[in-house]
Amino acid sequence: MALDQETRDQLLSTVRRFVEEKLRPIEAQVSENDEVPEEIVQEMRDLGLFGISIPTEYGGLGLNMEEECSLMFELGRTSPAFRSVIGTNVGIGSQGIVMHGRQDQKEEWLPKLATGEVIASFALTEPEAGSDAASMKTTAIRDGDEYVVNGTKRFITNAAKAGMFTLMARTDPNTPGAKGVSAFICPADVPGITLGKSEKKMGQQGAHICDVIFDNARIPVSSLLGDVEGKGFVTAMQVLERGRLHISSVCVGVAERLVEDSTNYAAERRQFGVPIGNHQLVQAMLADCKTEAYAARCMVMDASKRRDAGEDVGTEASCCKYFASEMVGRVADKAVQIFGGAGYVADYGIERFYRDVRIFRIYEGTSQIQQMIIGRNMIREASAG
After folding, report:
1. Nearest one of 209, 199, 172, 193 to 88, comparing CA atoms
2. What is the per-residue pLDDT across 204-214, written as a single tens digit (0 to 9) for each?
3. Does the pLDDT at position 50 exceed 70?
4. Among 267, 274, 255, 273, which residue's Cα sits nearest to residue 338?
5. Which residue would you say has higher pLDDT here, 129 or 242?
6. 181, 123 in Cβ contact below 8 A?
7. If you ran DSSP here, which 8-state letter would residue 21 be given?
8. What domains lie within the chain, and their CATH numbers?
9. What pLDDT digit, counting tens, does each position of 62-85 carry?
10. Interior CA angle at 188 toward 87 and 223, to 5°?
11. Interior CA angle at 59 toward 54 and 60, to 5°?
């Protein structure tokens, strides 16, 4: 159910102010220290940001997709590392439970996730299975009243702070491909779970990833997400489809921030006796950035409204993720060009965004995977017609 206009406007205004007053001033500090300060994380809890996509009956804000994307436009206007703090609770960590969890699982976990008391992580990617989730090797073999989990998950966001993993594992090793995969709610403190070292990344310092190793970790049968085995791949794909709209809206927010910064710089920086913004080739770069960011915003709004109306937006979500993630890379590149030497120097922060946005074309489905999904769906629809 959609928020009334006044509540929605108030929420967006509060987050906009939070970004402007609290987050943007410490962007460089977070990058330097590779850590988001705990007091900022607590403010995010207080604002309800961990629970924006969790239904109100479990303590969340219960935003629909359009409202969530509108909020991410605002939160995207600062370093993406801040969004990553709440990202797994809002999206891939919690939505499997929202969509397919049993009532007892929802009651146990969703209130804790909504408040940020517990951080959720999505344990899908493996050393040899990323985009091809159906080829995963991690197993969860039933042994009486428990499942025994073995395998390694790679590049897992927020794993070091996680209290719970939405875990994808193969329950039937004899069934190849997607059908043998099941989803689990796995508490992070189960004996047999260890974490690898925090990976040093190209960008998004302050957001952390590491390996999660399962070595004969025993979890109760009740940990199975839902009631039946073999539905894990369906859960993963539905969660990722929703996440693609979320990530697309973050890309739009970052792009709009870069457009604003570039325009302001072009209006002030002087060369040949005039502001560089007076030169037509600089104006052309600004125009390209503005046009692409606007196109991506329109795509995200259209797809999110369609999803809220109950339409199948599998193709459109991939279109958004593909275009918006590639778009923000082009905008960041032009922003460096407009800033010139200053764009390459760390003090101005533009080079940091240039590095930060590169991951958007990779995680939650690479651009190439999005192309495959879009093309496959187009051919399938044409054949059915």
Report:
1. 209
2. 898 889 999 99
3. yes
4. 267
5. 242
6. no
7. I
8. 5-115 (1.10.540.10), 119-230 (2.40.110.10), 234-384 (1.20.140.10)
9. 999 999 999 999 999 999 999 999
10. 95
11. 30
Beta carbons within 10 angstroms of residue 131's beta carbon: 13
Q: Which helix (H) or strand (E) holds 182?
A: strand 181-187
Percent of the chain exceeding pLDDT 90 equals 77
**pLDDT value at position 1?**
63
Rounded Cα gap, residues 229 and 175, in angstroms: 12
Residue position matching structure tokens 């190849």: 176
The rounded distance, in Å, linking the Cα atoms of 362 and 11 is: 30
Query: Which residues contact residue 230 at a Cβ distance below 8 angstroms, ignoring those fewer than 6 apart?
Result: 171, 172, 175, 179, 180, 181, 182
Is 362's pLDDT higher than 80?
yes
Provide the whole-model pTM. 0.94
The structure tokens listed for 166 are 């939405």
Residue 90 has pLDDT above 90, yes or no: no
Q: Which two tokens stand for residue 196?
A: 């690898």
User: Which of 348, 315, 340, 326 minimizes the C-alpha distance to 254?
Assistant: 326
Q: Quickly count: other Cβ atoms within 10 Å of residue 249's Cβ.
A: 30
68 vs 53: CA distance, rounded Å: 7
pLDDT 10s digits, 163-204: 999 999 999 888 888 889 999 999 999 999 999 998 889 988
β-partners of residue 182 are: 169
Largest distance between two CA atoms of the chain: 80
Average pLDDT for 102-131: 90
277 — alpha (psi -120 to 50), left (phi > 0) or beta? alpha
Contacts for 367 with CB less than 8 Å, ≥ 6 apart: 322, 325, 326, 361
What secondary structure does DSSP assign to 250-277, as a single string?
HHHHHHHHHHHHHHHHHHH-EETTEEGG
Residues noted as catalytic: 364
Tokens of 147: 């499942």
